């Protein structure tokens, strides 16, 4: 792996390698000394063209726990607001010897542009681009689901996939890069996915995605769901009326107290409720659901650091010019 | 097994330790550890993945068979050193393994690091760094199945199964039942056949 741009083209073996490495990273974050020297002397730039709290802090914590130097580049207050182009910014980072660039951008495809343009040699990690993809979020969601699913099945989560897991993703799929990245990754890992949303919040072409589509959350819950993922209603990206009122949205597609109770009455005792954050409490998820024992919201945040440590480690530690087959030999030579 | 094993030609190298030789060497090391430590008090064996861990387990079992009060699981751990290596940027990416310590931890313990082959000493240097992050043992010792020389750092083993003078162009391969297919043995491969298996 040279870059981490999307989950659409992420091979199953690569995805499992990231998740397995993240398991070891998670073990490190439970220690007293939560720091590893693996990326000492490497520089990671967090290049954020859009506001973000969770993702930026998570990447910063991940890089620091691997002993990398971190430069946080928030576009507000930078020369980008004076009209500097992405190319100029990239070349500035190149001149400062950045080894990895974590980029969040409002335009779909900006990370691909940065990775493929030849402006910069650094590894590029997509931290969310427009309404396109957010691969590390999907990986941390998959990591959270895998741990849960392995526990339910009595397996060791390392090396296991998500085959047999039934996931429902409900809400604003149209504007959600999280949903897109999750759909591709969950499919790769063997889960079955149902998208639940009002027709106005589903993208054109969703029929060609490897998912089932439903407009009725209750009917989907009735069929049995192991992981219920609620998406944020992205008011800031909505330039038209996509649903009549917040009250109606909440009643039909929100995970409210009644639906939380319904999981119990349906006998779905192991179903988890997920949300990528930030949550609109009372709109797509009720406070009781967000704070219930089923909620994995904080686990997702915790796992995010481990998954990003794994991604940074795998992208930055290896010598990509060496043949993979010689790994054992090289390490034995340096015993 | 008699000494004729040592000159047997394996299909891809020269066998220098047979399964029985490995077992005898580990039995001797277990007794040496107990003797130096005057018993199994405060003892912790930390195997370095991959092959150091099964060797540490076997040593722990041998120690437990001599000292019946000891439960081998209580003194056994695994120490991954991948993230502490100084050659991460020069080698292909290597997946980290699990680090697991005995429930007692390693503070104020006598830690014996266990690995299969001692060569440049860089793995052990990384292991010492990893240990510092995990606790503060009273004493750290090193046990290896094979010491093949060519040290690049001032590190030596306290317990050695077999000293094996080698050329740096040769390769030493340790095959264990727990981690490898085929017969359990230690093989020296000449430069011509290096890299054919694994």
Short description:
The complex is a heterodimer of chains A (335) and B (198). Chain A contains twelve helices and nine strands.
Describe the structure.
Chain A folds into two domains: 157 residues, Aspartate/ornithine carbamoyltransferase (Rossmann fold); 163 residues, Rossmann fold (3-Layer(aba) Sandwich), CATH 3.40.50.1370. The longest helix of chain A is centred in the last third of the chain and has 20 residues. Helix content of chain A is 39%, strand content 13%. In chain A, the strands form two sheets. Chain A has a five-stranded parallel beta sheet with strand order 7-6-5-8-9. A four-stranded parallel beta sheet of chain A has the order 2-1-3-4, with helices on both faces. By secondary structure, chain A is α/β, with parallel strands linked by helices. Chain A contains twelve helices and nine strands. Chain B is 24% helix and 24% strand. In chain B, a hairpin with a 2-residue loop joins strand 1 and strand 2. The N terminus and C terminus of chain B are likely disordered. At the A-B interface, helix 1, helix 11 and helix 12 of A face strand 5 and helix 3 of B.
Main β sheet profile of chain A: 5 strands, parallel
Q: How many beta strands in the DSSP annotation of chain A?
A: 9
The CATH topology of the largest domain in chain A is given as: Rossmann fold
User: How much helix is in the residues of chain B?
Assistant: 10-25%
Largest interface: A-B, 36 and 33 residues
Mean pLDDT score of chain A, rounded? Answer: 92
Principal-axis shape of chain A? globular
Alpha-beta content class of chain A:
alpha/beta
CATH class of the largest domain in chain A: Alpha Beta
Q: N-to-C terminal Cα separation of chain B, in Å? A: 26 Å
SS field, number of helical segments of chain A: 12
Portion of residues within helices of chain A: 25-40%
Oligomeric state of this protein? heterodimer
CATH class of the domain at 20-85 and 97-167 in chain B: Alpha Beta
Taken from the alpha-carbon principal axes, the silhouette of chain B is globular
Spatial sequence of strands, sheet with the most strands of chain A: 7-6-5-8-9
Biggest sheet: strand arrangement of chain B: 4-3-5-6-7
Subunit structure (chain A): Heterododecamer (2C3:3R2) of six catalytic PyrB chains organized as two trimers (C3), and six regulatory PyrI chains organized as three dimers (R2).
Binding site for L-aspartate (chain A): 82, 177, 232
Binding site for carbamoyl phosphate (chain A): 54-55, 104, 134, 137, 277-278
Keywords (chain A): Pyrimidine biosynthesis, Transferase
């Amino acid at each position: 792996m040279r870059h981490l741009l999307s989950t659409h083209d992420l091979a199953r073996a690569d995805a499992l390698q990231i998740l397995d490495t993240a398991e070891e990273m998670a073990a490190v974050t439970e220690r007293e000394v939560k720091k590893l020297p693996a990326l000492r002397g490497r520089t990671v730039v967090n290049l954020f063209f859009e506001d973000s709290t969770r993702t930026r802090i998570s990447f910063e914590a991940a890089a620091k726990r691997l002993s990398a130097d971190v430069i946080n580049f928030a576009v507000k207050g930078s020369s980008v607001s004076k009209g500097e182009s992405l190319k100029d910014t990239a070349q500035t980072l190149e001149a400062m010897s950045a080894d990895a660039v974590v980029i969040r951008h409002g335009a779909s495809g900006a990370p691909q542009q940065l990775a493929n343009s030849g402006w910069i040699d650094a590894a590029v990690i997509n931290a969310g681009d427009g309404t396109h993809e957010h691969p590390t979020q999907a990986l941390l969601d998959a990591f959270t689901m895998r741990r849960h699913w392995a526990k339910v099945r009595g397996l060791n989560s390392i090396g296991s996939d998500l085959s047999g897991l039934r996931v429902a993703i409900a809400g604003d799929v149209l504007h959600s890069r999280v949903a897109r990245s999750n759909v591709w990754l969950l499919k790769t890992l063997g889960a079955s996915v149902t998208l639940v949303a009002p027709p106005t919040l589903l993208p054109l072409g969703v029929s060609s995605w490897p998912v089932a589509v439903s407009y009725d959350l209750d009917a989907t819950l009735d069929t049995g769901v192991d992981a219920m993922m609620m998406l944020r209603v992205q008011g800031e990206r909505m330039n038209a009326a996509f649903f009549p009122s917040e009250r109606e949205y909440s009643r039909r597609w929100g995970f409210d107290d009644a639906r939380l109770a319904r999981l119990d009455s349906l006998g779905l005792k192991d179903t988890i409720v997920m949300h990528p954050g930030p949550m609109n409490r009372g709109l797509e998820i009720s406070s009781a659901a967000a704070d219930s024992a089923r909620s994995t919201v904080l686990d997702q945040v915790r796992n995010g650091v481990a998954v990003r440590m794994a991604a940074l480690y795998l992208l930055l530690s290896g010598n990509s010019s060496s043949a993979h087959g010689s790994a054992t030999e090289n390490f034995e030579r340096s015993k | 097994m008699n000494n004729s094993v040592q000159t047997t030609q394996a299909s891809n190298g020269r066998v220098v330790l047979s399964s029985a030789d490995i077992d005898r060497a580990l039995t001797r090391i277990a007794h040496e550890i107990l003797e130096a430590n005057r018993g199994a008090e405060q003892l912790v064996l930390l195997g370095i993945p991959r092959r150091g861990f099964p060797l540490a387990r076997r040593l722990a079992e041998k120690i437990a068979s001599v000292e019946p009060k000891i439960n081998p699981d209580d003194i056994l751990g695994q120490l991954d050193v991948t993230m502490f290596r100084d050659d991460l940027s020069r080698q292909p990416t290597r997946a980290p393994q699990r680090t697991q310590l005995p429930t007692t931890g390693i503070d104020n313990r006598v830690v014996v690091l266990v690995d299969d082959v001692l060569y440049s000493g860089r793995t052990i240097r990384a292991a010492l760094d990893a240990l510092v992050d995990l606790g503060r043992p009273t004493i750290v010792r090193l046990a290896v199945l094979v010491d093949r020389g060519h040290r690049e750092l001032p590190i030596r083993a306290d317990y050695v199964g077999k000293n094996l003078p080698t050329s740096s162009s040769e390769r030493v391969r340790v095959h264990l039942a727990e981690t490898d297919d085929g017969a359990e043995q230690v093989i020296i491969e000449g430069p011509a056949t290096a890299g054919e298996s694994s």
